[in-house]
Amino acid sequence: MQKRFVSTENPKFKDFNFAEGELLLINKPYKWTSFDVVGKIRNSLKPLKLKVGHAGTLDPLATGLLIICTGKLTKQIDTFQAEEKEYTGTMVLGATTPSFDMETEVDETFDISNITEEEIYAACKPFIGDIEQYPPAHSAVKVNGERLYVKARLGEEVELRKRFVSVPEFEITRIELPEIDFRIVCSKGTYIRSLISDFGKTLNSGAYLSKLTRTRSGNFMIKDAFEVLELVNYIRSKKEEAKTEVIV
């Protein structure tokens, strides 16, 4: 038999049938891994033993839209994962880190006093369209069955293999050096950290990612997403109140 979790209060919560399959839009919190979110939702559904998965990893230091699938809908994860993504974020110009973001400390700095706003806007152009990039050494990409970040954290050399991605849109939305805000629309598999690192090199400088939010995946928008604990607490409250319907 299946349990359906029924909303009788907040119209934001529809009638959920997690076993049959639900697509959940979640606003991933800062410093949570994508698997943390999956685990939190899976645990809230116990004693139901359901498949729960996500469609597109977000780095722990990134926030924003994470698509979670449950039950039979997990079979469609690859389809959702392949859709175009949109991000907004902030980079720091004039410095680099080994991880291309704030996970690691700054290892090199550059003088940016002579870089103009016109040069910054122009530096976007080489990254619009079909481009090639290397994933960061501190990434979840597997090489010979092992995650790159495992090797990187051990100080081992890693073999980076370039990949081809598409970036239809890359715009600068604010310049207040050393910070630069941006918006990017890109294909599956694009590493924003790598793009920002390469952007810094284009200006004969360095850059690293200091903030990143996924705002869209396909036609799904961050404005429609649940907060993790909001959804988890709702599910748990319905179980505690025994306000469920049983479908045979």
Automatic annotation (TrEMBL):
SUPFAM superfamilies reported for this sequence: Pseudouridine synthase
Active-site feature positions: D59
InterPro entries cross-referenced by the UniProt entry: PsdUridine_synth_cat_dom_sf (IPR020103), PsdUridine_synth_N (IPR002501), tRNA_psdUridine_synth_TruB (IPR014780)
Reactions catalysed: uridine(55) in tRNA = pseudouridine(55) in tRNA
One of the protein's GO biological processes: tRNA pseudouridine synthesis
Keywords from the UniProt entry: Isomerase, tRNA processing
Enzyme Commission number(s) of this protein: 5.4.99.25
CDD domains named among the record's database cross-references: PseudoU_synth_EcTruB (cd02573)
Pfam family, one: TruB_N
Ranges for domain Pseudouridine synthase II N-terminal: 51-192
MF term (GO), any: RNA binding
Enzyme class: isomerase
Function: Responsible for synthesis of pseudouridine from uracil-55 in the psi GC loop of transfer RNAs.
Similarity comment text for this entry: Belongs to the pseudouridine synthase TruB family. Type 1 subfamily.
Identification of the protein by name: tRNA pseudouridine synthase B
Organism encoding this protein: Pedobacter suwonensis
